[in-house]
Amino acid sequence: MHISSLDTYRPRASLIHALDARVKLVLAVLFIVATALTPDGAWPAYVLLAGLALGVAVASQLGVGFVLRRSAVALPFALAAVAVVFTTPGRPLLAVHVFGWELAPTGAGLVRFASSVLKSWLSVQMAVVLTASTRFPDLLQAMRSLRLPRMLVAIAGFAYRYIFVIGDEALRLLRARASRSGAPEGRGGGSVLWRARVTGGMAGSLFLRSIERSERIYSAMLARGYDGEVRSLRPAALHSRDVLIALPFALLLVAIQLLARLR
Amino acid sequence: MLASRVLPSPAPMHIPDGFLSLGVALACWVLAAVGVGLALWRSGKALGERQVPLMGVLAAFIFAAQMLNFTVAGGTSGHLLGGTLAAILLGPWAGILTMTTVVAIQALLFQDGGLLVMGANVLNMALIATLVGYGVYRGVLALARGRRWGLFVGGFVAAWASVVVAAVATAVQLAFSGTSPLGLALPAMAGVHVLIGIGEGLITVGALAFVAAVRRDLLEPTVAVGGGLRWAVVGLALAVAVALLAPLASPHPDGLERVAEDLGFSQVVRPAPFNVIPDYVLPGIPNQTLATIAAGVVGTLIVAGIAFAVARARRQAVSDGL
């Protein structure tokens, strides 16, 4: 078992995959900003945004099911927002008695809650398509050409490269622990304190292996002429195809915003 | 799918897109950019060309360390978040950069936390968690004066405090955005993370014990850096700042209070037999918001005071040979 199955890139021969990474990153962020700006309860705008997200998912050939399944990751957070249903001022819709408490959801509260969850869900869908259709090095390159700090991008690139190496190391530690531990049905052996200490020891051991590896890597880089400068190829110029897709997409987002506000 | 099994269950601290208002998200970006920029500059000065490989591999380490879990009870498991461990092992600046990278990769690759709200997540998990953790650790170390228990007590309290303060900051941001009223978000987030923090503290201490036993030299350099008390002050100031912001985030009456008023509970509620800070408002200060802020600060200082008093008593006990 290898950690490499964590990689979120899914190769396809789609239009979205072929799009320039810079354009994709900017459009995805634009979409998320537009979603955040959409007023609560502007349902036609949300339907259009959802349609846009669906269209992108279909065009990416990743499979709508894949995108929807992956985008469910943020839904548990909706629990944090449930309370607004009851605390937003407004006319109570009905009164529910729970354990002697009277809970009165208001119409305004429900609209606020549904809008927050929809915003989050749509944003995650676009982020899923972005990362599943773009190689991570391309994404880093795009961030670099969008003027993010060079060092930060270089560190993220290194982290991505070694997540799989150190992740494998962590899996080996977990396998070693599992093969040496008898686990009684449904619970771990020993006390919680002891289990936490063992896990801490594993983390400490992983840290030592990581820092020693980073020293070897640094020596290897020095041996190959590293001088503190991270060099990469200059990204290619934008195709006319990129512009042809980006412009209508951006205009559509503006149009949806206008529609949401003209109500 | 392997990913869902291996990856830690998303902690409720990674805010997804859609739950913060644009204004709050942008304000957090500005704060995060300032903090991370400072960290880049300071660690760049200290590490030079070693910065990229060291920080990159250690970000991968924190990411992988979050996969190490242990059974707590009944199918739930605890795992590491890592901010304090990173700060103690690497120093605060490098710790911030490492955690920033981890948060960014979690958001970019795994949608664990949103893109537009990444500033807020970096602020909470990379800046606040790391600096509060490191500050508390240095404060306890200064009290312990090089005795062995300082490492472990400091590590535990620091890890616990960093998780709790970061959770409170998250609740404050949600309240500012109008997503979740502070009266519910704060006790819920703080309550859950008071427990998660215990697991975090235990694993952090376990890791420190291992490193102290095998490679004690690795623990020296971050402690040898002067200004231990200055860091303690920075950590405490951050915790106080979060407490300061909390009441400002709550223009409406708390949700629970409103429910109570709807039910006519307000008159029924009996005053508690003892009440240090009645209704979280200090007596003698006319302005309500100001008084609430003062109460928050006083509360934070009391907790810090108790922690230091306990540490001091412990030191006394050790020097008495107990």
What is shown here, in short?
The complex is a heterodimer of chains A (263) and B (322). Chain A has ten helices and two strands.
Characterise this structure.
The complex is a heterodimer of chains A (263) and B (322). Chain A has 263 residues and is mostly helical. Chain A has two domains: 3-144 and 237-262, no CATH class; 149-223, no CATH class. Chain A has a two-stranded antiparallel ribbon with strand order 1-2. The radius of gyration of chain A is 24 Å and the shape is flat. Helix content of chain A is 66%, strand content 2%. The mean pLDDT of chain A is 86. In chain A, strand 1 (96-98) and strand 2 (101-103) form a beta hairpin. Chain A starts with 14 loop residues before the first helix and ends with a helix. Chain A has helices at 15-18, 21-37, 43-59, 64-71, 84-87, 107-133, 136-145, 150-180, 192-223, 240-262, and strands at 96-98, 101-103. Chain A contains ten helices and two strands. Chain B is an all-alpha fold and 322 residues long. Helices cover 71% and strands 3% of the residues of chain B. A two-stranded antiparallel sheet of chain B has the order 1-2. In chain B, strand 1 (69-73) and strand 2 (76-79) form a beta hairpin. Chain B is globular, with a radius of gyration of 20 Å. The termini of chain B are far apart. Classes of the chains: A mainly alpha (263), B mainly alpha (322).
Present the secondary structure layout:
The complex is a heterodimer of chains A (263) and B (322).
Chain A: H1 15-18, H2 21-37, H3 43-59, H4 64-71, H5 84-87, E1 96-98, E2 101-103, H6 107-133, H7 136-145, H8 150-180, H9 192-223, H10 240-262
Helix pairs in contact in A: 2-6, 2-7, 2-10, 3-6, 3-10, 4-6, 7-8
Chain B: H1 2-6, H2 22-47, H3 51-65, E1 69-73, E2 76-79, H4 83-90, H5 92-110, H6 118-144, H7 148-176, H8 182-214, H9 220-224, H10 228-248, H11 255-262, H12 288-319
Antiparallel strand pairs in B: 1-2
Helix pairs in contact in B: 2-5, 2-6, 3-5, 4-5, 4-6, 4-7, 5-6, 6-7, 6-10, 6-12, 7-8, 7-10, 10-12
